[in-house]
Amino acid sequence: MNADLRLDQQVCFALYAASRASTAAYREALAAVGLTYPQYLVLLALWEEDRLTLRQLGEQMYLDSGTLSPLISRMETAGLVSRSREGRDARSVTVVLTDAGRALREEAGRIQCAVLEKLDMPSEDLVELRRLARSVVSALERAGAD
Predict the structure, then answer these.
(1) Is residue 1 part of a domain?
(2) What DSSP character marks residue 88?
(3) pLDDT at 98
(4) pLDDT above 70: residue 146
(5) For the CA atoms of 106, 58, 74, 28, what is the dihedral angle to 10 degrees?
(6) Domain at 129, CATH number
(7) Is residue 2 part of a domain?
(8) Number of folded domains in the chain?
(9) Where is each HTH marR-type domain found (predicted)?
(10) Which of 112, 48, 39, 110 minimizes the C-alpha distance to 81?
């Protein structure tokens, strides 16, 4: 494969730019309800399955505990989640939604609809884009494991 080092030909740059643009599209609406984008992602995971360990959240979000722990701590201070140590392993921390965290779900649905409206892309394209992005993650994970 011939290396084409022009910026506009880089897959990594296209993914980076798309990620920044999509995060920015959420920023203002999330700030209005007191959330950052990473906090929103944590809530999405917990709305899907409440009561996850920090390890489970980290795996779902591709974050290490050094990044995730301060994020969860800020969310706990804001009253969105609570943390507890359960079972025999004192190192295992479980994160649970509070009533305030659950209450944001409806507003998050409105925010997501507004962002999707801004995208103005056919749903089939969004499904394909998500599939391709997941393929990139999987391929790079496999390559890193070798």
Answers:
(1) no
(2) S
(3) 98
(4) no
(5) -50
(6) 1.10.10.10
(7) no
(8) 1
(9) 8-138
(10) 39
